[in-house]
Amino acid sequence: MKRLAMPRLSLPQLPKLKLPAMGGTPSALKPLLQRVRPRWRQLSRQFDARLLSERRLLIIAALAAVWFVCDGLLITPALAQIKSASERDRNATAATQAMQTELNRKRVEMANQMLAAQREQASLRERLEQGKAELERQQSMLAPASEMRALLEGLLAQNGRLRVVAMRTLPPKEVTFTGSAVREGAAPPMLFNHGLEISVSGTYTELLQWLHSVENLPRRLLCDSLTLVSDEHARLTLTLAVHTFSPDRDALEIAP
Asked: pTM here?
């Protein structure tokens, strides 16, 4: 059987550099090359004298040393920088996504708050309109404050036997609705309670008829109190206190 010829492993020869005669740097390198070439030839002869397996191991060791140096100086630092940059990019992306998520949550929360405020405002407007409509309806059923005296005097004129003993107005009172709170700077009151007190004298039947006529007025007067007294001559005197509501603050001017 023929034996396969193995390739000869040897160190490469240093190229012969032709240095120019002039120039500072090549002239400075010439002594260095003259010292390196003999050493390189010696190492080449020692390398060629070794067994093939040893030469292979030396080549592998040299390549491993070159790889180790390159890995330590170039590859590993570059990979570390790439990893660090990737980590910073992931952190920045995560922070951006977190900020965007929080921003979206704030937007949704603000939108919900605005919708709730709009619904509350609409509900308040609706209740206010309903309250105003009900107030106007109730007020339309009551006699105006300015007409209380004329109404009562008209009823008295229908029964000429009754005599007016006294008539006076009561100071107007601000109407406070249930659940309303008095606050500094709040809106001015919308309604006032205007009262009137009248005292008439006559017989029991005449006074009773007059009370029925007051109760049957088309536009009512609300009764606060009713007092009936008798003097030593058995003459009855009825004192009636009534009131109505009006948006006017000014008190009624009624002479006794």
From this structure: 0.45
